[in-house]
Every structure is written in C-alpha cells, then in structure tokens.
Amino acid sequence: MTTTPLNRSLEPLGVSIPSKVPTHWYNLAADLPEPVPPHLHPGTREPLGPEDLAPLFPMSLIMQEVATERYIEIPETVREIYGMWRPSPLVRAHRLERALGTPARIYYKYEGVSPVGSHKPNTAVAQAYYNALEGTTKLTTETGAGQWGASLSFAGALLGLEVEVWQVRSSFDSKPYRRIQMEAYGGICHPSPSDLTEAGRALLKSHPGTSGSLGMAISEAVEVAAQDPNTHYSLGSVLNHVMLHQTVIGQEAMVQLEEAGDAVPDIVFGCAGGGSNLAGLTFPFLGRNLREGTKTRLVACEPSACPSLTEGEYRYDFGDVAGLTPLLKMHTLGKDFVPPAIHAGGLRYHGMSPMVSHAVNLGLMDAIAVGQDEALQAGLVFARAEGIIPAPESTHAVAGAIAHARNATEPEVIVIGLSGNGQLDLPAYSQYV
Amino acid sequence: MTTTPLNRSLEPLGVSIPSKVPTHWYNLAADLPEPVPPHLHPGTREPLGPEDLAPLFPMSLIMQEVATERYIEIPETVREIYGMWRPSPLVRAHRLERALGTPARIYYKYEGVSPVGSHKPNTAVAQAYYNALEGTTKLTTETGAGQWGASLSFAGALLGLEVEVWQVRSSFDSKPYRRIQMEAYGGICHPSPSDLTEAGRALLKSHPGTSGSLGMAISEAVEVAAQDPNTHYSLGSVLNHVMLHQTVIGQEAMVQLEEAGDAVPDIVFGCAGGGSNLAGLTFPFLGRNLREGTKTRLVACEPSACPSLTEGEYRYDFGDVAGLTPLLKMHTLGKDFVPPAIHAGGLRYHGMSPMVSHAVNLGLMDAIAVGQDEALQAGLVFARAEGIIPAPESTHAVAGAIAHARNATEPEVIVIGLSGNGQLDLPAYSQYV
After folding, report:
1. CA dihedral A170, A173, A179, A183 (to 10 degrees)
2. How close B176 gets to chain A, by Cα (Å)?
3. Residues near B94 by Cβ (< 8 Å), separated by ≥ 6?
4. Cys-Cys with B160: which of A117, B9, B102, B201 at CB 3.0–4.6 Å?
5. Are A175 and A424 contacting, i.e. CB atoms less than 8 angstroms apart?
6. Non-local CB neighbours of B38 within 8 Å, separated by 6+ positions
7. How far apart are CA B394 and CA B376, in angstroms?
8. What span, in angstroms and rounded, lies between the C-alpha atoms of B56 and B239?
9. Nearest CA to A399 among A365, A432, A372?
10. Banded pLDDT at B361 (limits 50, 70, 90)
11. CA-to-CA distance for B235 and B351, rounded, in angstroms?
12. Does the interface predicted TM-score (ipTM) exceed 0.85?
C-alpha cells in the first residue's frame, strides 16, 4: 500500500459542518448476536485475507470490510462534503397522512437532496477519499441505470480522481441523461460490452449485438482496475463497507425523530436491491433494538420481480455473473438469474448484501415483496400529496408504508426511506400517469 | 368575484414552519423613486382597470399587480407549502473559490431544492392558492421547456386545482421527461398548437406541421381560460405579482448572509429571461439600497442570443406574439422576435418584466449579456467544484460571477442566484462534456 502526501483536494477546507452530520459511521457487526459469515476465496473457499482484495481496493476499505468496532470515525474531508447536503431532511408527511385518512404519523427520510439525487454519494465520497489518500489516481466501476456511476463521478470530481464507468449498453443507449450527468462531473462512460477490454471484446464476439448486463460491465471494470496499480475498483452496494458508509442516514433519522418527539418509531420501511439504502437507514435502529431492547420493526421492501430475500436461498454465491468475485453468503436467486426489465433498475440484482441477509436470516428484520404496479401507483399518491416524485426504487418502500398506514388503527409511527427522487427516471411513470 | 368556503386542502395544516421562511412578500413598488409605468389596454391604450383582467385572474392577484404597500402577508397555507423546501440553502462556494484562486467570498442561493427543481413553485403555489380561494377550479397555462408547467401542476396537486398546460410542440416532442413530470402531479399536457382550441385549429391550418411557439401556446391557454368562469389563466413570469411572490428568495438570502457575517454583499448576479428569478433575488437588496443607502450592485445576466435588456428598446409592447395581451412597458426585442434555439429555454422571451425594466432604466440595476458557450462552460466549472449541475438558465449568472471573481483583487462578497438544477436539461451540456 502506497500513501501519498495529502494533496490540496484531500485536506479539509476548515468550513463549518452542520452539527447533525454524524461524526462516525455505525458498524452493526459490533452488535450482532452472531458474526456475519466471512467472504470466501472462490478458489480455496477459505475466508479472504486482506491481500486477496488489495488489487482492487485500498487497505482502509478492506479493513472496514472486516471491522468489528461499533463506531468508525468519518474523516473531516468526507464530513465537509457530506455537509453540502447533509443532514438530509426528515419530513413529517402531513399531507400524505391526510390523503390516506390514517391515524399513523408518517415520516420520510429524504436522500434525494444530494447533488445526484440519491443516497449513493454517501459511500462514493468515502470510497473516493480513501482511494485518493492511498495513492489511487483512477477508479473504475460499472453502472446500470446510472445512479452509481454518476455518484462516483461526482465524488471523483471533488476529490481529484479520474472515474471510468462501464454502463450496461441498453441503459447507455436509452438513458442518455445519466451519461451526460457523469460526463458533466468529468467522468468517462463507455457502453458495455466495449472493445476496450479483453472481456468486452470476447463478449462482443460471443454475443454479437448484446445489450449488455451488469455482470458483463463488472468484468470490464474489474479487468481494467486489476491491470494498473494506481487504478482501483469501486462497488456501490452489497459489501460491508458500503453498508457502513450509508449509516449516516439512520443515525441522522434517529436524532431527527427524537427532536420530533417520536424517538422510537414502530416500523421503518426501506427499499432493498443490493441493500445499501436499507442498511443505511435501518442498521442504527437495529443496533439500538439489540443493545437497548427497543422494538422498532424493520422491513425490507424488494420488487416481486427480483425477490432475493423473500424467495431466494441463503447460501454462498458469486457477486457477479461470470463467477470472478469472492463468494458471499447471501440471499440469492442464483448468479445466473436474469431479472425482468422492471423500472426500478437499482433493485435488479440477483443477490443481497451479506449483512442484510444475515440480519434477515437471524429474524432481526422482515422482508416483503412489492409488485411494480403497486409501487409506482404508490409513488403517484406520494407525489400528489407530498410534492416529491420518488425514485422508482423508493416507491417500493412507499408502497409498503402506505399499505401499512391504511390498516393502522392507532397513531403508530412509520418511517419511510425515500432513497432518491425520480427526476431522471420519469419514464418509469409514463404508463401510470 | 365569487369566494368559496375554504375547502380542506386550503386550510393550514397547523404544522411548524421553519422560522426563516418569510412571513411577507416584499414589494419593490413601495421604494422606487418613480412608479412602475402601468399596463395599458391594447384597444384604448389607457391604464388597465381591475375589471379588464378579471376574466383571466382572481381579484387577489389583480390587486397585487397594482399594490404599492411595502409588505404583503403570505397566507399561512402558502407558507406551510414553502416550508416543504424553504428556506432554500445559501451556500458558501468554498470549492469554487479554491478552483478559481480568487480572494472573493462567493455564495450561491440555491432554488434547485424545490420539488420541481427551480424557483418557479414560489409563485405557482401562491397563484394556485388565491385562485382556489376565489373559486377557480382549473388553471390553464403555456410552457416551453416545461419548468413552469411542472411547477403549476405541482401546486395544483397540493391545492386541489385541475391544471391544463399547452406545451410548445417542439419541446413536447423532444423533452418527454417534463411532460411525464406534469402528469405525475396530475396535470394535463397538450402539444401546441392543438386541435382543442379555435386558435390552435387555425394555426394548424395556416401553419401545417409547425413546431409551435410560446406565443401560440399562450393563445390556446388564454382562449380556454376566457371561456369558463371557473377557469383562470396563470403566468409564470413578467407580471408584477410574480416578481412579488419570488421575493422570498432575496429576503431569505439577506438573513442568511447576515448570519454568515457578510450582511451587505458587494455584487449579486441573477439570470434574466422574463425576470422573475432575478427580481426575486435582487429586489430585497435593491429596496435596502434605496431605503438605507447600501451599495450592493445588482447584475442581470441575460443570454446574448436574446438580449432584451442590453439591446432591446424600452417601450410599450405586447406580452405575446399575437398581440392579444395588455401592453407592457418593458425592454423588448419586439413581439415578433424569434430567439434562436438556445439551451436555456427559460430565457427565450422577447421582453422583460416591467418592474425589472423600470429598475434598469432608472440605473438601479445593471445588465450584461452572456454567450451560451461561456455560460455552459461556467456551469461545468461550477459542477466540478460544487457538485451541483446548474440549470442552463442559471449558468448565465454563474458565468457572470466567475468572470467577476477571476478579476477580483479584494475579498469582496459575491452572490450567485442559482435558480435551478440541470437534471432535466442535461442534454444542454452534451456538446460541452
């Protein structure tokens, strides 16, 4: 591991940071009754050592992946960037309550205020920071709909890293706004498969005219990162360190709920694809449940078209289609599962974060599956009451909460994780308006 | 004028409103050394009476159009809706200052946090409220790029009004995201010219295959509003009451600047099309200049492709192409001026708000013209430093401020009006990335 001297863009500016921006990330591993099963080497099936991950990730993130301490300090430079949009608002949904005629008190925690419109920058900034600190000059990644590629490009712009993104060709062709967003931040975006990598060229030969897949794009991004010691790879969900970075969401929500006089909500709904938004919102509540015996119920809302938690097996599986990644213990539909082309592109993943999978397996969290029609209809109800058009992913949590609130007979407290806005995914609503 | 009993959606919810949301709109007319020239009847060329406007506007807004009192109280229901995203952030642009190497202290007032992504809801909510209060059940309007149609649809959803929008056909066809955004809020959006109105049918006959224009769309919206006593027409800029509603921007900025220790900025840059964003930000500063002798310089930044303030005549002209509206005293390029298809669709108007025109004519404000290339390049500099991709309209103010800051030798205080984000206008950047 090489460490460069702090360059100017990594030094804190010394600006004031809103006091509600957390000072530490919360690590659920410290409070779980049983440890999260380790990632395994795909060849030996033995637990991975740090050196196995070193070609792709900086050592700081590798150590966070296996960390067991409860709190990990957030670097000042990262907190300053968080302070550009954090704390994100926790809003009492008075108008939605009125529209539903429910006695419940509904709150939503809104991550759509970030510069790219979702929760993804919470980890993009952290990953870019640690990489830059250890001398990485370029990050590669894959993206589907483009939220993650845009978030990493944003983080790269602020922290002085080149960012190269392989975007699934079907999205690259059909969603030009996201590509321009990445490029506006200085990122480079290629359709995948591309002729820039061996993997891409082989795929173009074996699958002429293919519209691409996340699995193919991962292969290209990993190949480029592995070839250059100054280039690393970055993943936007699934891994433990990503869950860790997102816990700023739930920590803020707990403080904000306490100020609103509803410190211990009855139930929290979050959408779940790879698991990072769900974990970020719910893990701090789950930790309190485990430490203090509070009884906040936590509900993962996944799409019924890609139901890894509600219908998948809990076993070791690969994170990618090609079977090149470490083996992760997770709820999975199988690495070869191809989800239908639902609108919530961010939830189309065959597996689920090992930490989330473990928590569900231990009975610490619940999971429900929501159909696309119900989800997007709920999104419209929300938009017309609260004025914010939710991201298609977020509508799954909205739908879960609305169904629950409609049945409520007591003034129970409901929290919705609104992971993003739907500005760049408006076509998802076109058949429902 | 008929007044309906308050229906449920017009009553305040009784929720807490952030203390920095202004309680009153500020009316520059109270502080101007000479009154704003009145609007004239197009037939008689005599000053308009309230009854002349009654077929199109509710009496509350007609009275605001000619009001001379300094402060007009904001209804509680409107303030509660403002409180969903207001006060909008005033941000010190530390990273931009560093990127420019300027000794200036740069702030931006960011209206892109509103649910539709710009300042337009500030007046849409007020106009929908007064209309609903006086019994209007439907609002019609025209829209070009779609920001205004989306904002009025948002306001209609929250206040229980039907909203029907005629969108210039070229935008309707090329910008489907905005149309879906309007529809998600329950608005109805037609391409213009349409076969739904006499004006539209005549235009389709006389101009077969036309891609439409704002002037044509205004004719259709006005025709429909004039035919039904329960339907009114709504305009998103230019008129005095629109300038009034937008002054929440500048009032908040003054409080926020004082808290930041820079109570009297040296210079404020705002983009100018019809004038509402510029007026909203600058009029409160201008009023203080006039009352207290402060010397904050105020600069309107218009596109060099549509330079009404810097190259237009100051005279009475029609607000629309067909010559059906009242005559307004304004800086104008002539009602038949057809601006080129620049990316900042919100700045493509042949005239300029009479209040802004009057202030410029009296020498109380300055105006500069900025080219599209310079504007969008400045937008990219801003995006890569501050993480927010500005709306193409806003980039004109950003460009003005950046040019000024680059020449600064003293730590002067610069304020930029960032009227919106560029999420739904990303293609504007495509040739610059």
Report:
1. 130
2. 8
3. A13, A15
4. B9
5. yes
6. B47, B48, B66, B329
7. 9
8. 13
9. A372
10. very high
11. 14
12. yes
Q: In A117-161, where do the E strands start and end? A: 138-143
Domains of chain B: 79-117+241-432 (3.40.50.1100)
Q: What amino acid is encoded at B69 in this protein?
A: E
pLDDT band at A210, cuts 50/70/90?
confident
* Structure tokens that stand for B393 in this block: 């309209």
Copy the structure tokens of residue B22: 């202004």
Burial class (CB in 10 A: 0-12, 13-18, 19+), B290: middle
The DSSP secondary structure of A353-408, one letter per residue, reads -HHHHHHHHTTSSEEEEE-HHHHHHHHHHHHHHHS--B-TTHHHHHHHHHHHHHT-
Residue B343 has pLDDT above 80, yes or no: yes
Averaged pLDDT for residues B106-134: 97
Measured CA to CA, the distance from residue B349 to residue B353 in angstroms comes to: 10
| A429 C-beta neighbours (distance < 10 Å), count | 23
A-to-B residue pairs, Cβ atoms closer than 8 angstroms: 116
CB neighbour list of residue A397: distance below 8 Å, 6 or more residues apart: A269, A270, A271, A301, A416, A417, A418, A419
Burial B190-215 (b: 16+ CB within 10 A, else e): bbbbbeebebbeebbeeeeeebbbbb
Residue A179 — left, alpha, or beta (φ > 0 → left; ψ -120 to 50 → alpha)?
Answer: alpha
Task: Give the chain A residue whose CA is nearest to the CA of B178.
Answer: A426
Residue A328, phi then psi, degrees to nearest 5: -120, 135
Mean pLDDT value across residues A263-273? 97
- For CA atoms B268, B272, B278, B279, give the dihedral sign: positive
Evaluate whether B199 touches B223 at the Cβ level (below 8 Å): yes
